[in-house]
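Reviewers asked in the last cycle whether our approach scales beyond single polypeptides. To address this, we selected a multi-component target totalling 506 residues and predicted its structure end to end. The input consisted of the following lines:
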Amino acid sequence: MKVSVQIRRKQSGSVLVISMLVALILGLTMGSYLYWVRAQNIQTAESQAWNTALVAAESGIEEGMAQVNISFGNVASPTNYLNSLQANFGAAVSGVYGPRANTNLSGARYSLIVQPTVAGYPGPMITATGYTAVPYMSRPIARTVRVYTTTSPVFGNAMSALLGVTTKGNKLTVDSYDSTDPNHSTNGMYNAATRLAGGDIASVAGAVSIAGANIYGHLMTGPTGTYDIGNNQGSVGDLNWVNTQKGIEPGWYANDFNMVATDIIAPYASGWSVPVNANATNTYPLTTGNYYVGGDFTMNQNEVMNVSGNVTLYVTGNFNMKSQNNCSINILPGGTLKLYVGKDTGPAVAAI
Amino acid sequence: MVTMVYLFGLRSFAAMSNYAEMDGKSRMAVDLMLREIRSADKVLSASSSTNSGSLTVANTAAATTNTFTWASDSGKLTWAKTGQAQRTLLTGCDNWSFTMYLRVPDANGNFYTTPTPSLCKLINMAWRCTRNNILKKINSESVVTAEVVLRNKP
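The resulting structure, written as C-alpha coordinates, was:
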Protein backbone atom coordinates (compact mmCIF):
# COMPACT_ATOMS: atom_id res chain seq x y z
CA MET A 1 0.00 0.00 0.00
CA LYS A 2 2.80 2.38 0.86
CA VAL A 3 4.53 1.65 -2.40
CA SER A 4 1.50 2.46 -4.50
CA VAL A 5 1.00 5.75 -2.65
CA GLN A 6 4.56 6.84 -3.34
CA ILE A 7 4.16 6.09 -7.06
CA ARG A 8 1.03 8.24 -7.34
CA ARG A 9 2.84 11.18 -5.71
CA LYS A 10 5.67 10.97 -8.30
CA GLN A 11 3.20 10.90 -11.18
CA SER A 12 1.34 13.94 -9.85
CA GLY A 13 4.56 15.93 -9.60
CA SER A 14 5.48 15.19 -13.22
CA VAL A 15 2.10 16.35 -14.48
CA LEU A 16 2.43 19.58 -12.54
CA VAL A 17 5.87 20.34 -13.96
CA ILE A 18 4.83 19.54 -17.51
CA SER A 19 1.71 21.65 -17.16
CA MET A 20 3.72 24.57 -15.86
CA LEU A 21 6.19 24.26 -18.71
CA VAL A 22 3.43 24.16 -21.29
CA ALA A 23 1.73 27.11 -19.63
CA LEU A 24 5.02 28.98 -19.63
CA ILE A 25 5.61 28.27 -23.30
CA LEU A 26 2.08 29.28 -24.17
CA GLY A 27 2.39 32.39 -22.07
CA LEU A 28 5.66 33.39 -23.67
CA THR A 29 4.23 32.73 -27.10
CA MET A 30 1.13 34.75 -26.37
CA GLY A 31 3.14 37.54 -24.82
CA SER A 32 5.52 37.68 -27.75
CA TYR A 33 2.64 37.62 -30.17
CA LEU A 34 0.90 40.46 -28.40
CA TYR A 35 4.14 42.39 -28.35
CA TRP A 36 4.48 41.93 -32.12
CA VAL A 37 0.90 43.02 -32.61
CA ARG A 38 1.59 46.12 -30.59
CA ALA A 39 4.75 46.83 -32.56
CA GLN A 40 2.88 46.41 -35.83
CA ASN A 41 0.12 48.67 -34.59
CA ILE A 42 2.60 51.34 -33.62
CA GLN A 43 4.40 51.02 -36.92
CA THR A 44 1.17 51.52 -38.82
CA ALA A 45 0.27 54.49 -36.66
CA GLU A 46 3.72 55.94 -37.16
CA SER A 47 3.37 55.54 -40.92
CA GLN A 48 0.06 57.38 -40.86
CA ALA A 49 1.50 60.13 -38.70
CA TRP A 50 4.48 60.39 -41.03
CA ASN A 51 2.23 60.96 -44.01
CA THR A 52 -0.06 63.28 -42.07
CA ALA A 53 2.88 65.51 -41.23
CA LEU A 54 3.59 65.99 -44.91
CA VAL A 55 -0.04 66.82 -45.60
CA ALA A 56 0.05 69.37 -42.80
CA ALA A 57 3.21 70.91 -44.26
CA GLU A 58 1.54 71.09 -47.65
CA SER A 59 -1.38 72.87 -46.04
CA GLY A 60 1.05 75.44 -44.76
CA ILE A 61 2.50 75.86 -48.24
CA GLU A 62 -1.00 76.46 -49.60
CA GLU A 63 -1.62 79.14 -46.99
CA GLY A 64 1.68 80.74 -47.88
CA MET A 65 0.83 80.65 -51.58
CA ALA A 66 -2.55 82.23 -50.88
CA GLN A 67 -0.80 84.91 -48.88
CA VAL A 68 1.71 85.88 -51.58
CA ASN A 69 -1.08 85.84 -54.19
CA ILE A 70 -3.31 88.13 -52.17
CA SER A 71 -2.99 90.84 -54.82
CA PHE A 72 -3.75 88.54 -57.73
CA GLY A 73 -5.70 90.48 -60.33
CA ASN A 74 -4.60 93.83 -58.96
CA VAL A 75 -3.24 95.37 -62.12
CA ALA A 76 -1.65 98.33 -60.35
CA SER A 77 0.38 96.31 -57.86
CA PRO A 78 0.12 92.56 -58.42
CA THR A 79 3.04 91.74 -56.15
CA ASN A 80 2.12 94.05 -53.32
CA TYR A 81 1.43 91.45 -50.67
CA LEU A 82 3.79 92.69 -47.99
CA ASN A 83 1.24 94.80 -46.13
CA SER A 84 -1.10 91.84 -45.85
CA LEU A 85 1.81 89.61 -44.94
CA GLN A 86 2.79 91.88 -42.09
CA ALA A 87 -0.80 92.11 -40.86
CA ASN A 88 -1.15 88.33 -40.71
CA PHE A 89 2.37 87.25 -39.83
CA GLY A 90 3.67 90.23 -37.88
CA ALA A 91 6.66 92.37 -38.65
CA ALA A 92 9.56 90.83 -40.51
CA VAL A 93 12.61 89.73 -38.55
CA SER A 94 15.80 89.66 -40.60
CA GLY A 95 13.71 89.73 -43.76
CA VAL A 96 11.54 86.78 -42.75
CA TYR A 97 7.84 86.89 -41.90
CA GLY A 98 6.59 84.38 -39.39
CA PRO A 99 6.53 81.78 -38.09
CA ARG A 100 2.79 81.62 -38.26
CA ALA A 101 1.27 78.58 -36.61
CA ASN A 102 -2.00 76.88 -37.42
CA THR A 103 -3.36 74.55 -34.78
CA ASN A 104 -6.84 74.17 -36.20
CA LEU A 105 -6.10 70.93 -38.02
CA SER A 106 -7.26 67.64 -36.57
CA GLY A 107 -4.33 65.64 -35.24
CA ALA A 108 -1.70 67.89 -36.76
CA ARG A 109 -0.47 71.45 -36.93
CA TYR A 110 1.88 73.44 -39.07
CA SER A 111 4.11 76.43 -38.91
CA LEU A 112 5.24 78.49 -41.87
CA ILE A 113 7.49 81.38 -42.72
CA VAL A 114 7.66 83.56 -45.82
CA GLN A 115 10.85 85.18 -47.02
CA PRO A 116 10.02 87.73 -49.73
CA THR A 117 13.52 88.17 -51.09
CA VAL A 118 15.81 85.26 -51.84
CA ALA A 119 19.03 85.68 -53.79
CA GLY A 120 18.87 83.93 -57.11
CA TYR A 121 15.11 83.51 -57.13
CA PRO A 122 12.52 85.84 -58.61
CA GLY A 123 9.80 85.19 -56.05
CA PRO A 124 9.39 84.69 -52.31
CA MET A 125 10.35 81.51 -50.51
CA ILE A 126 7.82 79.65 -48.39
CA THR A 127 8.85 77.13 -45.76
CA ALA A 128 6.27 75.09 -43.90
CA THR A 129 6.76 72.43 -41.25
CA GLY A 130 4.02 69.95 -40.38
CA TYR A 131 3.91 68.41 -36.93
CA THR A 132 2.20 65.27 -35.72
CA ALA A 133 2.77 62.73 -32.98
CA VAL A 134 2.79 58.95 -33.11
CA PRO A 135 -0.25 57.65 -31.23
CA TYR A 136 0.37 55.52 -28.13
CA MET A 137 3.90 56.88 -27.93
CA SER A 138 3.43 60.65 -28.19
CA ARG A 139 6.64 60.75 -30.18
CA PRO A 140 6.71 63.93 -32.28
CA ILE A 141 7.19 63.90 -36.05
CA ALA A 142 8.11 66.98 -38.07
CA ARG A 143 8.42 67.23 -41.85
CA THR A 144 9.35 70.34 -43.75
CA VAL A 145 8.56 71.48 -47.28
CA ARG A 146 10.29 74.45 -48.86
CA VAL A 147 9.01 76.12 -52.00
CA TYR A 148 10.79 78.65 -54.16
CA THR A 149 8.30 80.64 -56.20
CA THR A 150 8.34 82.61 -59.37
CA THR A 151 5.98 85.11 -60.91
CA SER A 152 4.07 84.58 -64.09
CA PRO A 153 1.69 86.90 -65.91
CA VAL A 154 -2.02 86.46 -65.42
CA PHE A 155 -2.43 86.63 -69.15
CA GLY A 156 0.53 84.72 -70.39
CA ASN A 157 -0.88 84.32 -73.86
CA ALA A 158 -1.54 86.57 -76.78
CA MET A 159 -5.25 85.73 -76.52
CA SER A 160 -6.86 84.09 -73.51
CA ALA A 161 -10.56 83.52 -73.14
CA LEU A 162 -12.88 81.70 -70.80
CA LEU A 163 -15.31 80.59 -73.48
CA GLY A 164 -14.00 80.37 -77.00
CA VAL A 165 -11.91 82.34 -79.48
CA THR A 166 -13.00 82.88 -83.08
CA THR A 167 -10.99 84.60 -85.77
CA LYS A 168 -12.22 85.26 -89.27
CA GLY A 169 -10.55 85.99 -92.56
CA ASN A 170 -7.11 85.10 -93.87
CA LYS A 171 -5.03 88.08 -92.83
CA LEU A 172 -4.78 87.60 -89.09
CA THR A 173 -1.30 86.93 -87.77
CA VAL A 174 -0.50 86.40 -84.11
CA ASP A 175 3.10 86.42 -82.95
CA SER A 176 5.27 87.98 -80.25
CA TYR A 177 8.43 89.94 -79.72
CA ASP A 178 10.84 90.66 -76.89
CA SER A 179 11.30 94.36 -76.27
CA THR A 180 14.33 93.63 -74.06
CA ASP A 181 16.13 91.64 -76.72
CA PRO A 182 17.59 93.59 -79.66
CA ASN A 183 17.62 90.39 -81.67
CA HIS A 184 13.85 90.23 -81.43
CA SER A 185 12.88 93.90 -81.50
CA THR A 186 14.01 97.16 -83.01
CA ASN A 187 14.67 99.83 -80.43
CA GLY A 188 12.33 97.96 -78.16
CA MET A 189 9.55 98.02 -80.75
CA TYR A 190 7.92 95.24 -82.70
CA ASN A 191 9.53 94.19 -85.95
CA ALA A 192 7.91 91.41 -87.95
CA ALA A 193 11.30 90.39 -89.32
CA THR A 194 12.48 89.39 -85.84
CA ARG A 195 9.26 88.04 -84.43
CA LEU A 196 9.01 85.15 -81.97
CA ALA A 197 6.58 82.27 -81.79
CA GLY A 198 5.02 83.27 -78.48
CA GLY A 199 1.62 84.28 -79.78
CA ASP A 200 -0.30 81.60 -77.92
CA ILE A 201 -4.09 81.42 -78.21
CA ALA A 202 -6.02 79.72 -75.43
CA SER A 203 -9.51 79.16 -74.14
CA VAL A 204 -10.60 77.45 -70.93
CA ALA A 205 -13.79 76.06 -72.47
CA GLY A 206 -15.60 76.19 -75.77
CA ALA A 207 -14.04 76.13 -79.19
CA VAL A 208 -11.06 77.90 -80.68
CA SER A 209 -11.50 78.63 -84.35
CA ILE A 210 -8.61 80.25 -86.14
CA ALA A 211 -9.90 79.95 -89.73
CA GLY A 212 -7.04 80.93 -92.03
CA ALA A 213 -4.97 82.77 -89.45
CA ASN A 214 -1.26 82.28 -88.92
CA ILE A 215 -0.53 81.65 -85.28
CA TYR A 216 3.14 81.83 -84.37
CA GLY A 217 2.61 80.11 -81.07
CA HIS A 218 0.66 77.38 -79.27
CA LEU A 219 -3.01 76.59 -79.41
CA MET A 220 -4.48 75.54 -76.08
CA THR A 221 -7.91 74.49 -74.92
CA GLY A 222 -9.38 72.98 -71.82
CA PRO A 223 -9.92 69.19 -71.61
CA THR A 224 -13.40 69.55 -73.09
CA GLY A 225 -12.46 72.22 -75.62
CA THR A 226 -12.27 71.82 -79.35
CA TYR A 227 -10.47 73.62 -82.12
CA ASP A 228 -10.92 74.32 -85.79
CA ILE A 229 -8.22 75.46 -88.19
CA GLY A 230 -10.46 76.26 -91.13
CA ASN A 231 -10.14 73.16 -93.33
CA ASN A 232 -6.43 73.13 -92.71
CA GLN A 233 -6.03 76.69 -94.02
CA GLY A 234 -4.69 78.08 -90.77
CA SER A 235 -1.29 77.37 -89.33
CA VAL A 236 -0.11 76.95 -85.73
CA GLY A 237 3.47 76.34 -84.71
CA ASP A 238 6.95 77.77 -84.63
CA LEU A 239 8.34 80.27 -87.12
CA ASN A 240 9.50 77.72 -89.65
CA TRP A 241 6.30 75.71 -89.50
CA VAL A 242 3.94 78.63 -89.97
CA ASN A 243 6.05 80.05 -92.80
CA THR A 244 6.06 76.80 -94.72
CA GLN A 245 3.14 74.62 -93.68
CA LYS A 246 -0.52 74.55 -92.75
CA GLY A 247 -2.19 72.86 -89.80
CA ILE A 248 -0.90 72.40 -86.31
CA GLU A 249 2.71 71.50 -85.72
CA PRO A 250 3.05 68.36 -83.59
CA GLY A 251 3.43 69.29 -79.95
CA TRP A 252 1.99 72.77 -80.36
CA TYR A 253 -1.51 71.91 -79.22
CA ALA A 254 -2.39 71.11 -75.61
CA ASN A 255 -5.71 70.44 -73.94
CA ASP A 256 -4.71 71.22 -70.36
CA PHE A 257 -5.25 74.98 -70.35
CA ASN A 258 -6.70 76.49 -67.22
CA MET A 259 -6.66 79.94 -65.71
CA VAL A 260 -8.38 82.07 -63.13
CA ALA A 261 -9.78 85.29 -64.52
CA THR A 262 -11.18 87.86 -62.16
CA ASP A 263 -14.35 89.63 -63.19
CA ILE A 264 -13.78 92.86 -65.07
CA ILE A 265 -15.49 95.86 -63.58
CA ALA A 266 -16.82 98.58 -65.89
CA PRO A 267 -14.27 101.39 -65.74
CA TYR A 268 -16.73 104.30 -65.71
CA ALA A 269 -20.29 105.25 -66.58
CA SER A 270 -19.54 108.16 -68.86
CA GLY A 271 -16.68 109.61 -70.87
CA TRP A 272 -15.68 111.38 -74.02
CA SER A 273 -17.44 110.53 -77.25
CA VAL A 274 -15.30 108.92 -79.91
CA PRO A 275 -14.33 111.62 -82.43
CA VAL A 276 -15.14 110.87 -86.05
CA ASN A 277 -12.89 112.16 -88.82
CA ALA A 278 -14.10 112.05 -92.38
CA ASN A 279 -10.51 111.40 -93.46
CA ALA A 280 -10.48 107.66 -94.09
CA THR A 281 -6.82 107.37 -93.14
CA ASN A 282 -7.67 108.14 -89.53
CA THR A 283 -11.39 107.81 -89.00
CA TYR A 284 -11.27 107.66 -85.22
CA PRO A 285 -8.30 109.62 -83.84
CA LEU A 286 -7.98 108.82 -80.15
CA THR A 287 -5.63 110.77 -77.93
CA THR A 288 -5.09 110.33 -74.20
CA GLY A 289 -8.40 110.08 -72.37
CA ASN A 290 -11.38 107.96 -71.33
CA TYR A 291 -13.86 107.34 -74.16
CA TYR A 292 -17.37 106.01 -73.77
CA VAL A 293 -19.75 104.48 -76.32
CA GLY A 294 -23.24 103.74 -75.00
CA GLY A 295 -24.26 100.87 -77.31
CA ASP A 296 -22.64 99.16 -80.30
CA PHE A 297 -19.53 100.40 -82.04
CA THR A 298 -18.81 99.28 -85.60
CA MET A 299 -15.78 100.01 -87.74
CA ASN A 300 -16.71 99.75 -91.40
CA GLN A 301 -14.81 99.39 -94.64
CA ASN A 302 -11.41 101.10 -94.73
CA GLU A 303 -12.00 102.81 -91.41
CA VAL A 304 -8.97 103.29 -89.18
CA MET A 305 -8.58 104.00 -85.48
CA ASN A 306 -5.27 105.59 -84.56
CA VAL A 307 -4.36 105.51 -80.88
CA SER A 308 -1.71 108.10 -80.11
CA GLY A 309 -1.94 108.36 -76.30
CA ASN A 310 -2.96 106.42 -73.25
CA VAL A 311 -6.52 105.58 -74.23
CA THR A 312 -9.32 103.74 -72.50
CA LEU A 313 -12.30 102.93 -74.70
CA TYR A 314 -15.46 101.56 -73.09
CA VAL A 315 -18.13 100.17 -75.43
CA THR A 316 -21.24 98.97 -73.60
CA GLY A 317 -22.59 97.03 -76.62
CA ASN A 318 -21.01 94.96 -79.37
CA PHE A 319 -17.64 95.92 -80.79
CA ASN A 320 -17.49 94.97 -84.44
CA MET A 321 -14.56 95.33 -86.82
CA LYS A 322 -15.23 94.58 -90.46
CA SER A 323 -11.85 93.03 -90.86
CA GLN A 324 -12.60 91.72 -94.31
CA ASN A 325 -12.97 95.31 -95.44
CA ASN A 326 -9.55 96.53 -94.37
CA CYS A 327 -10.41 98.35 -91.20
CA SER A 328 -7.77 98.46 -88.50
CA ILE A 329 -6.69 99.76 -85.12
CA ASN A 330 -3.22 101.27 -85.09
CA ILE A 331 -1.52 101.80 -81.78
CA LEU A 332 1.10 104.41 -82.55
CA PRO A 333 4.46 104.70 -80.77
CA GLY A 334 3.84 105.81 -77.20
CA GLY A 335 0.19 104.86 -77.36
CA THR A 336 -1.71 102.31 -75.29
CA LEU A 337 -5.27 101.05 -75.59
CA LYS A 338 -7.48 99.48 -72.95
CA LEU A 339 -10.68 98.23 -74.54
CA TYR A 340 -13.70 97.33 -72.39
CA VAL A 341 -16.72 95.71 -74.05
CA GLY A 342 -20.11 94.98 -72.44
CA LYS A 343 -21.84 95.73 -69.19
CA ASP A 344 -21.61 94.14 -65.77
CA THR A 345 -25.16 92.87 -66.19
CA GLY A 346 -27.55 92.23 -69.05
CA PRO A 347 -27.25 90.23 -72.25
CA ALA A 348 -23.88 89.05 -73.53
CA VAL A 349 -22.12 91.09 -76.19
CA ALA A 350 -19.29 90.29 -78.57
CA ALA A 351 -16.06 91.79 -79.81
CA ILE A 352 -15.62 90.51 -83.33
CA MET B 1 -2.98 21.17 -29.16
CA VAL B 2 0.61 22.21 -28.73
CA THR B 3 1.30 21.54 -32.39
CA MET B 4 -1.65 23.67 -33.45
CA VAL B 5 -0.54 26.52 -31.22
CA TYR B 6 2.98 26.19 -32.56
CA LEU B 7 1.90 26.31 -36.19
CA PHE B 8 -0.50 29.16 -35.57
CA GLY B 9 2.15 31.10 -33.74
CA LEU B 10 4.68 30.42 -36.44
CA ARG B 11 2.43 31.69 -39.18
CA SER B 12 1.40 34.68 -37.12
CA PHE B 13 4.97 35.63 -36.43
CA ALA B 14 5.86 35.20 -40.08
CA ALA B 15 2.90 37.33 -41.15
CA MET B 16 3.80 40.05 -38.68
CA SER B 17 7.37 40.01 -39.89
CA ASN B 18 6.24 40.25 -43.49
CA TYR B 19 3.90 43.14 -42.78
CA ALA B 20 6.58 45.03 -40.91
CA GLU B 21 9.10 44.50 -43.69
CA MET B 22 6.66 45.44 -46.48
CA ASP B 23 5.39 48.49 -44.63
CA GLY B 24 8.88 49.74 -44.09
CA LYS B 25 9.90 49.29 -47.70
CA SER B 26 6.69 50.74 -49.05
CA ARG B 27 7.07 53.79 -46.85
CA MET B 28 10.61 54.30 -47.99
CA ALA B 29 9.55 53.84 -51.60
CA VAL B 30 6.73 56.36 -51.22
CA ASP B 31 9.04 58.93 -49.69
CA LEU B 32 11.75 58.54 -52.29
CA MET B 33 9.44 58.46 -55.29
CA LEU B 34 7.35 61.38 -54.09
CA ARG B 35 10.43 63.45 -53.41
CA GLU B 36 11.72 63.00 -56.94
CA ILE B 37 8.39 63.31 -58.73
CA ARG B 38 7.32 66.35 -56.75
CA SER B 39 10.46 68.21 -57.73
CA ALA B 40 10.27 67.12 -61.38
CA ASP B 41 9.02 69.48 -64.03
CA LYS B 42 7.91 67.02 -66.70
CA VAL B 43 7.21 63.42 -67.50
CA LEU B 44 9.47 62.26 -70.28
CA SER B 45 7.96 58.85 -70.90
CA ALA B 46 5.44 56.52 -69.39
CA SER B 47 4.30 53.00 -70.12
CA SER B 48 2.21 50.64 -68.09
CA SER B 49 0.86 47.15 -68.64
CA THR B 50 -0.03 44.13 -66.58
CA ASN B 51 3.47 42.76 -66.89
CA SER B 52 5.67 45.81 -66.76
CA GLY B 53 5.74 49.53 -66.25
CA SER B 54 8.11 52.44 -66.58
CA LEU B 55 7.92 56.08 -65.64
CA THR B 56 10.61 58.66 -66.37
CA VAL B 57 10.46 62.17 -64.99
CA ALA B 58 12.91 65.00 -65.49
CA ASN B 59 14.10 67.72 -63.18
CA THR B 60 15.49 70.29 -65.57
CA ALA B 61 16.86 72.60 -62.90
CA ALA B 62 18.84 69.81 -61.27
CA ALA B 63 19.72 68.26 -64.65
CA THR B 64 18.52 64.86 -63.50
CA THR B 65 16.13 62.23 -64.71
CA ASN B 66 14.50 59.56 -62.60
CA THR B 67 13.25 56.29 -64.06
CA PHE B 68 11.07 53.92 -62.10
CA THR B 69 10.74 50.50 -63.64
CA TRP B 70 8.72 47.46 -62.64
CA ALA B 71 8.69 43.96 -64.13
CA SER B 72 6.34 41.24 -63.02
CA ASP B 73 8.78 38.42 -63.64
CA SER B 74 11.34 39.80 -61.22
CA GLY B 75 8.77 41.40 -58.93
CA LYS B 76 11.07 44.36 -58.44
CA LEU B 77 10.45 48.08 -58.63
CA THR B 78 13.72 49.81 -59.35
CA TRP B 79 14.77 53.44 -59.34
CA ALA B 80 17.49 54.85 -61.56
CA LYS B 81 18.60 58.44 -61.09
CA THR B 82 21.15 60.36 -63.07
CA GLY B 83 24.52 60.00 -61.43
CA GLN B 84 23.45 57.29 -59.01
CA ALA B 85 23.51 53.53 -59.04
CA GLN B 86 20.24 51.78 -59.68
CA ARG B 87 18.36 50.97 -56.52
CA THR B 88 15.65 48.44 -55.77
CA LEU B 89 12.74 50.04 -53.97
CA LEU B 90 10.37 47.11 -53.74
CA THR B 91 10.63 43.36 -53.97
CA GLY B 92 7.85 40.84 -54.24
CA CYS B 93 5.91 43.48 -56.10
CA ASP B 94 3.09 41.73 -57.96
CA ASN B 95 1.63 44.85 -59.47
CA TRP B 96 2.62 48.45 -60.02
CA SER B 97 0.46 50.82 -62.01
CA PHE B 98 0.00 54.54 -62.41
CA THR B 99 -2.37 56.97 -64.04
CA MET B 100 -1.50 60.39 -65.37
CA TYR B 101 -3.79 63.37 -65.03
CA LEU B 102 -4.04 66.87 -66.48
CA ARG B 103 -3.78 69.92 -64.30
CA VAL B 104 -7.41 70.78 -64.92
CA PRO B 105 -10.19 69.52 -62.64
CA ASP B 106 -13.73 68.93 -63.80
CA ALA B 107 -16.82 70.37 -62.18
CA ASN B 108 -16.71 67.71 -59.46
CA GLY B 109 -13.12 68.35 -58.56
CA ASN B 110 -11.82 65.21 -60.25
CA PHE B 111 -8.90 65.52 -62.59
CA TYR B 112 -8.94 64.51 -66.25
CA THR B 113 -6.73 61.62 -67.20
CA THR B 114 -4.28 61.97 -70.06
CA PRO B 115 -2.17 59.47 -72.00
CA THR B 116 0.26 62.21 -73.02
CA PRO B 117 3.34 62.44 -70.78
CA SER B 118 4.07 66.06 -71.67
CA LEU B 119 0.66 67.13 -70.35
CA CYS B 120 0.88 65.20 -67.10
CA LYS B 121 0.66 67.27 -63.92
CA LEU B 122 -0.57 64.68 -61.43
CA ILE B 123 0.29 61.01 -61.03
CA ASN B 124 -1.60 58.40 -59.09
CA MET B 125 0.39 55.27 -58.29
CA ALA B 126 -0.62 51.99 -56.74
CA TRP B 127 1.25 48.82 -56.02
CA ARG B 128 0.74 45.52 -54.28
CA CYS B 129 3.45 43.48 -52.64
CA THR B 130 3.11 39.97 -51.24
CA ARG B 131 5.28 37.63 -49.26
CA ASN B 132 5.39 33.89 -48.81
CA ASN B 133 4.04 32.66 -45.52
CA ILE B 134 4.82 29.06 -44.59
CA LEU B 135 4.74 27.58 -48.06
CA LYS B 136 1.73 29.61 -49.14
CA LYS B 137 1.63 33.03 -50.75
CA ILE B 138 -1.27 34.28 -48.73
CA ASN B 139 -2.06 36.53 -45.88
CA SER B 140 0.86 38.89 -46.36
CA GLU B 141 -0.23 41.58 -48.76
CA SER B 142 0.53 45.27 -48.75
CA VAL B 143 -1.40 47.63 -51.01
CA VAL B 144 -0.24 51.22 -51.33
CA THR B 145 -1.63 54.14 -53.32
CA ALA B 146 -0.14 57.59 -53.62
CA GLU B 147 -0.96 60.75 -55.52
CA VAL B 148 1.76 63.21 -56.31
CA VAL B 149 1.86 66.50 -58.18
CA LEU B 150 4.72 67.64 -60.37
CA ARG B 151 5.16 70.86 -58.47
CA ASN B 152 7.65 72.37 -60.85
CA LYS B 153 5.73 71.73 -64.04
CA PRO B 154 4.89 75.17 -65.39
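The longest helix of chain A spans residues 2-68. We regard this as preliminary and will revisit it once experimental data from Aim 1 are available.
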